[in-house]
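so i finally got all the pieces together for this one. its two components total, 462 residues if u count the protein bits. some of the lines might not be protein, just check the labels. i wanna see the whole assembly predicted at once instead of chain by chain like last time, that was a mess tbh
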Amino acid sequence: MKPKLAKTFLAFLILLCSTLNPAPVRGQTAGAVLSGTVSSPAGAVVSNAKVSIKNVATGQVTEVQSSPAGAYTAPGLAPGDYEISAQADGFGSISAKVTVAAGAKQTLDLALPATGTATEPSLGDLGFTPDQVKGSALDQARLDRRSHMLRTHQRLGLITTAPLIATLITSAGAGGRHGTASGRELHAALGGVTAGLYLTTASFAIFAPKIHGTPVRGPIRLHRALAWVHGPGMILTPILGALAYDQRNRGEKVHGIASAHAPVAVATGIAYGLAILSVSIKF
Amino acid sequence: MSKNLLIAFLLLTPSWSVPPDSQWVLDKSTLTYHVSHPLHQIDGVSHAARGKGVCHAGQCDFLIAVPVKSFDSGDSNRDLHMIQVARGAQFPMVTVRLHLPESAATQETIHADLEVQFAGQTAEFKQVPFQHTTQGNEAHITGTIPATLTGFKIEPPSLLSIPTKNEIPIRVDMTWHPQ
């Protein structure tokens, strides 16, 4: 072969090889990521679980471990079909299949079954879905906060009954023929304390986190309905009381809208008492 | 639990003629927890339990599971509070496992050891008695699991600052049939 012809042939070979072998370069840059959480049958996260990701086409296996938070991540996966399996001490193993697209970030949560013999049934055998079995720390925190606020609502509500009753009792010395200025002062002061405590109590119920998708049923419905009576009553009573207070201090007989102070206060007190009883005594 | 015991019972009784490697499925169930408080006697009921029993080589394994939130006490606010104290959002399932030799099914009263997972805790109850009857190919099991709040590290809920009793017996009424 002549030198010029040999060089041309060699250049052709090099060019041919470079065009025929581009796949490994593209494969290295595919970089799909598969991640998820490994959980127990009870929904708790499982750390140090061994997660195997097998490429069905090539047979290549990638193994990763779940973190203390139960999370696992397998980066750099080529696109294709994979068989995923997970196992951890104290639990049975689970397997799943997933198709990974090029460059995708896919999530696959793995709920381990309880350990056991070959005959031992698992939660999966019972037909529960992963969503039913998987717990949520976030939802639990929301429930915890709700219960904490409602417990405070309950305790403050009980405390509020003391000045409320005292206010009703001292009303005898504030109005009527035997009413005195000092009696009105005491009655007004106790009424102010009651209103302040009441509004604080109510705010803990109003701002407690709501749990959506829970239909309201049972005695709590009556408790809530009564709030529409004693709530406005607790706002109206001090306003009417202030009007009555001014009229009496001017030496006038209580008249006009202010004369509704006593009946509104009594109705409010009764509604408030019934609201407490509605969640305290089983009817 | 009691369902599992009943299944084992059925498998052991010759008249049932259950072949080896048989399976049982929970058909109907009523689970009822009872909470005592000076002002209230509360019963929470669930019909949502699912169960399965697998028998092989003379041994039977049973699993019963029920979502915590499926219990209904007749008051949605109380139910939410129960779910909260039982950490039901974080651990949404109650599971009961039972392992019995087939020979245990020769008695009308079955004493079973139960492993209960609830509120992120596991508690064992030894020799819990369950009664069983049969009708056709169905097995009916009733009994009470003597559960306690402290057994699952649950702080007793309170009403008007008065806590409930620690004991929360769970009544079990289940019907199983062969698969």
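The CA atoms of residues 96 and 116 of chain B lie 4 Å apart.
Chain B is about 10% helix and 50% strand.
anyway lmk what u think
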